[in-house]
# Entry
Amino acid sequence: MIERLQDEGHSIDAGLSGENLTIVGLEWDQVKPGLVLSVGPEVRLEVTSYTSPCSKNGRWFRDEEFSRISQKQNPGWSRVYAKVLREGVVRPGDAVTIES
# Structure
């Protein structure tokens, strides 16, 4: 998603909008509240809700249009909150799989 936003001319990059974990390779329209993800060999996360973008994210978007990552205005483009079900270490390149 970040690359697609960059293709639209936004200067966003991984980590700039407050995310703690950036995942590549999932069908993002499948990532919804209630979904459980395995990250690497140890970590399990449950998606709890969509995030609401705030004006502090405006600087990463053309014309300060931070609503570009709003689930209400642009479904499928939001970041999500997740609850840690099982702790562990996450490393670059770890596999991410959908459990439910």
